[in-house]
Each structure stands twice: as structure tokens, then as C-alpha cells.
Automatic annotation (TrEMBL):
Pathway per the UniProt entry: Amino-acid biosynthesis; L-tryptophan biosynthesis; L-tryptophan from chorismate: step 4/5
GO terms classed as biological process: L-tryptophan biosynthetic process
Tagged with keyword Flavoprotein: no
Lineage: Eukaryota, Viridiplantae, Chlorophyta, core chlorophytes, Trebouxiophyceae
Catalytically driven reaction(s): 1-(2-carboxyphenylamino)-1-deoxy-D-ribulose 5-phosphate + H(+) = (1S,2R)-1-C-(indol-3-yl)glycerol 3-phosphate + CO2 + H2O
Originating organism: Auxenochlorella protothecoides
The protein's name in its UniProt record: indole-3-glycerol-phosphate synthase
Keywords: Amino-acid biosynthesis, Aromatic amino acid biosynthesis, Decarboxylase, Lyase, Tryptophan biosynthesis
GO molecular function terms attached to this record: indole-3-glycerol-phosphate synthase activity; phosphoribosylanthranilate isomerase activity
Length: 275
């Protein structure tokens, strides 16, 4: 997926050079505090993890999730139901998403901070995220070296945005042989939160135990000690799953499929939050 992005970015660059995108990014309304919104929700709800609700039409592992997909309607439903933040899939090839969905959700007056869910390999995509109204971006540790992460987190901060850095379930990484959570501890994590993907991206298998295992590991404990916000991602279906993420040490959860599959997404959010 990340490899295909390079091809796509070349096509974007041919029609919109970085200089033009940077101007658009500059004109965009200031970015909102994504991490702050999650922490505030968790505090207001007695420590229950803050919710990032994902606007997701389809995925490679699960196919089409939402046939009559209306991103604006879903986003408005999530906000009405009480989500703290939204995640918007922008990858078109594998997730049938789009940057235009970010812009449309912003234009419709949704005020929740927005995460641009994209396979980011270049700063160009971060400028594009800002130009389209995103407040935070996803960076996937498995496909980025630490120097790349340093560079991309800096670029994100320079635009006033924040990062969600995702680590995988298994110990090793394709980039290094050091477990990813351990590798993250060497970075300047100002303006960053971490995410633990419960889905193994090679086998697509999901287990909530992954969050618990990583958080209980030595680097996981260091992350907690430093007070970094961690989101449990993927495979969260019920309020009990949210509680399990909380017990694992997650201050936030990222949920897509189980919400988007339901007709009344506002009610789905309330149920997930235990209301
Ligand atoms: O639909 P789920 O199982 O609730 O998962 C949401 C989110 O975690 C998942 O979409 C995701 C996590 N990391 C990603 C990286 C790229 C694309 C998608 C993802």
C-alpha cells in the first residue's frame, strides 16, 4: 500500500505542486487540538477512553462495509452521538476514501477534530491533509524509519497539527529489528499520541490482547510513565471492548467497522460509550 502511494503522489504533484498546496494549507483555518479533545472526553467521563470514530466505506480485509456511504451524514451522526474526534479514510485505492471527504465534513460544520487516515510516506501528504482541513495525521511506524518519523512529525508540527503514530502488534518491524514501541521512545513525541493496531496488517487477524501485551511490555510502561496518550485501534465492537482497552492502559479508542455498519450511527456511538 505504501509503495503504491509513491505513484499516486507523483500524479498529485503533477497537477498540484507542493508550493500551491502549501499556500492552501496556510489559508486553512487553524488546526484543532485532537489529543486535547480525547483527553477532555476521557476526563469528563471518569477515565473512559476518548472515542475516535472512523468514517470508513470499505477495507481490504472486510470489503464493502457501508454500501450507501455518505461521509458527511456519518460524520454528523458521530458528532451528535458524542464522539470526541473523527478519523477520515483518505486512501482511495484500498479503502475507497478520499481527501474530498475531509473537506466536505469540514464544510458541513462538523467541529470534532479530524484525523487524516492516509498511508503517509512524504511531507506532501501532510500539506494536503492540512489544505483539506485535517487537524492530525496518521504515521505508521512499520513503514517509516526513525529519521523519516522525525522529519514527518516535524513537518506536521510546523503546520500546527498533531500525529497519531501507529505501532503494530508483533515485536519486530520491517524497518528495524527493534520492537516498534521501543523504537518510538527515541523520538521527540511533542504533539504526538500513539496507537496500537490490534489488527496484524499481514494476516488481518485482530486481537484486543495485542494492546494489553504491548502496554504491559517495558516500552509500553515507559510510554504510560511519560503520560503519552495511547489509542487502541481496530476490532472494537462493544462497550465491554472499550473497557478492555481501558484496562490495557489506552486513553482512547479508534473504531470504524462496528459503528459504520449500523444504520443509526449516533445511537451506535452512544451504545459504544455505554450510555
Ligand atoms: O474498523 P475497525 O476494525 O474498527 O478499525 C478502525 C481502524 O483501527 C482501522 O481502520 C485502521 C487502523 N490502522 C489503519 C491504517 C490504515 C488504514 C486503516 C487502519
Amino acid at each position: 500500500m505504501a509503495r503504491y502511494k509513491a505513484v499516486e503522489i507523483e500524479q498529485w504533484r503533477a497537477s498540484t505542486p507542493l508550493s500551491k498546496l502549501a499556500e492552501q494549507a496556510k489559508r486553512a483555518k487553524p488546526a484543532r487540538d485532537f489529543i486535547g479533545a480525547l483527553k477532555a472526553q476521557s476526563e469528563a467521563r471518569g477515565g473512559c477512553p476518548g472515542l475516535i470514530a472512523e468514517v470508513k466505506k470499505a477495507s481490504p480485509s472486510r470489503g464493502l462495509l457501508c454500501p450507501d456511504f455518505d461521509p458527511v451524514k456519518i460524520a454528523q451522526g458521530y458528532e451528535a452521538g458524542g464522539a470526541a474526534c473523527l478519523s477520515v479514510l483518505t486512501d482511495a485505492k484500498f479503502f475507497q476514501g478520499g481527501f474530498e471527504n475531509l473537506a466536505a465534513i469540514r464544510r458541513a460544520g462538523v467541529t470534532c477534530p479530524l484525523l487524516c487516515k492516509e498511508f503517509i510516506v512524504e511531507a506532501y501528504q501532510i500539506f494536503k491533509a492540512r489544505a483539506y482541513g485535517a487537524d492530525a495525521v496518521l504515521l505508521i511506524a512499520a513503514v517509516l524509519s526513525n529519521p523519516d518519523l522525525e522529519y514527518l512529525t516535524k513537518a506536521t508540527r510546523s503546520l500546527g497539527m498533531q500525529c497519531l503514530i501507529e505501532v503494530r502488534v508483533d515485536a519486530g518491524s520491517q524497518v528495524h529489528d527493534v520492537p516498534e514501541m521501543q523504537r518510538m521512545l527515541d523520538l521527540d513525541l511533542t504533539g504526538c499520541m500513539l496507537g496500537i493496531n490490534n489488527r496484524d496488517l499481514r494476516t488481518f487477524k485482530v486481537s484486543l490482547q495485542n494492546s494489553a501485551d504491548i502496554m504491559a511490555s517495558v516500552p509500553g510502561q515507559e510510554v504510560q510513565r511519560r503520560g503519552l496518550l495511547v489509542a487502541g485501534e481496530s476490532g472494537i465492537f462493544t462497550h465491554e471492548d472499550v473497557q478492555e482497552a481501558r484496562r490495557a492502559g489506552c486513553g482512547a479508542v479508534l473504531v470504524g467497522e462496528s459503528l459504520v455498519r449500523q444504520g443509526d450511527v449516533a445511537q451506535a456511538v452512544r451504545t459504544l460509550l455505554g450510555e
